[in-house]
Write the structure tokens for this entry.
Amino acid sequence: MDDLRDKYLTRIAGAADETALEDLRLAAVGKKGEVSLKMRELGKMTPEERQVAGPMLNALKDEINSALAAKKVALEDAALDARLADEWLDVTLPARDRPQGTIHPVSQVTEEVTAILADMGFAVAEGPQIEDDWHNFDALNIPSHHPARTEMDTFYMARKEGDNRPPHVLRTHTSPVQIRSMLDQGAPIRIICPGRVYRADYDQTHTPMFHQVEGLAIDKDISMANLKWVLEEFFSAFFGTKVKTRFRASHFPFTEPSAEVDIQCSFEGGTVKVGEGDSWLEVLGSGMVHPKVLEAGGIDPAEWQGFAFGMGIDRMAMLKYGIPDLRAFFDSDLRWLRHYGFSALQVPTLHGGL
Ligand code: PHE
């Protein structure tokens, strides 16, 4: 019996896992186990022998059963320890990147334009998108009979019946913010105004709502030369390469002289590349602020002068990021937004890159 005890207690102590332990249980105290077979032999013994052997066998059986139970608990503990060591999860790790949305190219380019021009000393100004016709037209030297009013495909707000005042409009350009800034702060001025504008127009390069950025600099001795420098610096910073510009004489009621500005590009291979080739693309209107506009803004044209420009933001985004159709900008198609959108953390800055 001592041999049996030694044999099983040693094996149980050394069992590697629960299967080995179960095999040992069957071999020792199972129906046909060694201890069980010994207990069957009790029947063939004399009562005296049985009185000695019986309790000893029972004690052995109990001892083996408790060793099995203790080992089982020890194995379970060890298995749990191993899993804890193996399957740990560090809940303090930063979450996996799961982008939920993107920054729209219009927002991104607005930020880019603002970063460049802010670095040149322009502050951001804003104005309402629903504008009265004085700010949108008259103050900008566009009287009511002027063809520019119809040319701009203006959206008019409805008036109540019997109200004969001129209707408000959805602003057709950001130029009314020129007037608002002049009246608000007086000269000198150095502002840009990015924002939404509206015209009834719809094709591959026109949508009824689009974005412009207005620029306005007024001081004592500002000239077209300053305008040209600012724009050339701007384009080179924006496109990240030296961009030639072409100033074409033009006409706007609110500037004199006026110039439309083209940037150098190539159309080779079916794609537009800015800053190379010998084609030109019109990107903005500009000029020296008309004396009548300064007057409407409460600024004395005998003392002050300045330049203004208005540029299409969406158009700049199309050119810089190779986006062929303007209409898709405003379709809210998730596939388009994921493809052309920017990460929220890609904030454009001059030092970080544009
Ligand atoms: N407001 C003009 C437009 O929308 C652009 C412009 C702005 C032209 C400022 C000259 C000066 O077309």
About this structure: The two ends are 87 Å apart (CA to CA). Residues 105-340 form a domain with the BirA Bifunctional Protein; domain 2 fold (CATH 3.30.930.10). Residues 173, 175, 252, 255, 285-287, 308-310 surround phenylalanine (CB under 6 Å).
